[in-house]
Amino acid sequence: MYNDADVQKWIEHHGVATSFTFLVYGEMQSQEVDLLIKGLIFRVDVDIPKMAIFFDVITEDQAVAWNTYRGTTITFVFAGDKLDIEEEVRYIILDGLEYLRYKADYLCSSRGESFV
Description:
By secondary structure, the protein is an alpha+beta fold. It is built from 4 helices and 4 strands. The protein has a single domain, classed as Alpha-Beta Plaits, CATH 3.30.70. It has a 4-stranded antiparallel beta sheet with strand order 2-3-1-4. 22% of the residues are buried. The mean pLDDT is 86.
């Protein structure tokens, strides 16, 4: 999963962390990511536990190396097992990206578990 210290603590405490990853075909600004976060918090019907957001720009060199397109990857990481809200998160984020006039794809969800 991620080497972020907080996410590792969540995995230790909750046993799992759930992530949802999107590929945005453009270079997003931090204010636009903040808008997506606010929309997600406002629209998700369940209690949102601790959440972390990772967004990274894919440069031309990285795009060539990974055989993908330039843009931005955004990953939303939740403490605990939150696969039950996958469709809701997917819809909200893709809708928000469309509102911001970005073309985007939902890549995947994953669970980081503690194997200790």
